[in-house]
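Homework help thread (please don't just give me the answer)

Our assignment gives two proteins as sequence + structure token strings and asks us to describe the second one. The first is just a warm-up. Here they are:
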Amino acid sequence: MTPVHHFWFLDLLDIFLVAVLFYRLLILVKGTRSAQMYVGLLVIVLVGIAAREFDLIAVKWIVDGLKTVWLIVFVILFQPELRHALAQFGRTRYFRSFVRSDTYPVLGEVVRAVESLAERRHGALIAIERNVGLRNFVETGRRVDAKVSAELLVTLFSPGSPLHDGAVILREDSVIAASCILPLSSNPRIATTLGTRHRAAIGLSEESDAAVIVVSEQSGAISVAYRGGIQSRLSEGELRSELVRIFRIRPEEEARTSPAQGEMPGAPARAPAGASTGAPTEGGSGSGAGSGPGEPERHAAGGTPAA
């Protein structure tokens, strides 16, 4: 067999790219109504090939007539899938540094949900994906694929919800999965006052660059884990400021910055004693011990409270 190109590896590359294209297309329409249309389209193509092979004049005339409009028909039939595929392509880590999504409206919904959960003392564990993918942890839970809203997050963590155990994982403006299992940190320096949710939050932050929010079920205290460090007993304003700071960090800046021992980089200054935080001040699994009322606590890599 004579290769099409002078260099045979270009033929292999051509076959590989076509195979990947068809594979991704099949994965895209799998389990959707478009799968049936995709099968119908393949049947028409096979009929056209058979008509040419056996010289079926009438069938070949019909298929040739469809050639003038097949591209338009394809775009109309598969418009949602094509938009979804292009959006997914633009969200890959290779293009995130060029196109940065507007995360701040989503953070506002998350903060509103966390505030409501803290007032009700409903435990919560929310992981917000950044540059490092969390697909391995998404697969441990149940897929949701819904737009982020405060009402949805509050509903997911309500005690009567079948998905309230485990973590919710967010990606950009979507709730990807709920009831996910996160790795517990094995750091022996973790304070004994931190519960399982906080250990899971620290464990995920050690393995990825995700921002993980915890709401204590016992005290309603709000915490944020990031890069192996955790800040506890944050107010609504402090939570919003910390999330905005984290999502402003670019990968190249993050590579040059290492968390200081005893606190996370760029942590907000301590609130004065007696200042209102909007969260309960009593101890529990969600709050550490040893800080004054309204004073946010900081732990490095899940360690003991900073002095």
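The one we have to describe:
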Amino acid sequence: MHFFKAYFFHWSARDNVGGNPYSFVVFWVFWVVAPRSLTREKQGKNNQDNFELHLSKNRNTILSLTMMSNSEIQELKSSLSITVVAKRLGLSVERGRFRCFFPEQHAHGDRTPSVSINEEKGYFKCFVCENVKGDVISLVQMYLGISFAEALKWLKGDAPSIKRDMQKSTAQKSKKQESSERPKFFKEKIIFDFLNLLSPIPPNSKAAWWLAKRHIYKPVWDKVLLRLIDDYHRTSRELLAKYSLEDLQYAGLFNSQGILRYGRHPIIIPYIDEQHRPFFFQARAIEKDVVPKELNLQKAIPFPYNKEVLDGKPGIVYLCEGAIDTLTLLGHNFSAVGIPGVNSFKLEWVEMFKNKKIILCLDNDAAGRASETRISAMLQEAGLETHSFGLLPEGEDINSWFASRQF
């Protein structure tokens, strides 16, 4: 347990993955497409430069022309729904996203919307264009090409039709206030304490044999800190002795009936950031009759699995569907990351893949192929080079493909 605690917060670089001694070099043959360079049309660049200059004007100077104080402006902003404002402007907003004002600066004309809206914060941001971002006032300024004072006038004049749902806003504020009563990283501390109660994967255990059958060996599971719920009842008792049931439910470990959720999913796969802090985990069943096979912690997925390989340095990374496929590639000395499901890739993760060439290795089924198309479009919009692995037979995934072959 103490080794886990010390290792988990270790700040130095970790050793390279060991494991299966066989290397797999044939993939390099398929890497034949030279990196593409994005081009900008002159008109588009000039347009954005003009907007940047326009938005950089001193707002304090303009405030005197609007006859509104800073507090009045903040009150106006907090009363408005940035999503409704965007729609009122004529933008097509779907699932909190819309297409950029400068499609000529996107690889495919921003075919996959790159601008994300944060309704709670009243903020928007394009994940390709660095300066397409801001609050609800900036949104009106940028889209209509008007001044700060004119944007305020437009918002005030249209305010009755673009107000927030105040009842919903009050409920969100109440929920946020309840969360803020707990210390920062409170959930993460509970997750860490939970993981620290668990044991490493014991050699010759049922879990170890299950992993080895999938070409995942001890050097890999030690490196990525896989854990095992070896005594479910003891783990549950110790958590309840340290935290209230409400806190454990808040952290996502216990269900509404007050029961630790992972009784039939003993292998725990932590999602660790660059500082070796656990922010998320998946639990994996090893019995064939357990459905679903995987259980995610009940909280937002913060980043892809094995995030540390997304270091910003030039190189190739394999993007897999699921942690098990990712571990299989790590066991064959490939740089790999994973997403916990076909629809879990987030637009804000695109920036993490900076300077990488990405080979998509999702399952070769209808859902996997559709997800590859969607993820590839998002990555290519940011100027990143992508390829499909392309070797999996129908219905197979990376793990089953390796397991059926001898390398």
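TA reply:
I won't write it for you, but here's a hint about the kind of observation we're looking for: The domain at 182-302 is CATH 3.90.980.10 (DNA primase DNAg catalytic core, N-terminal domain).
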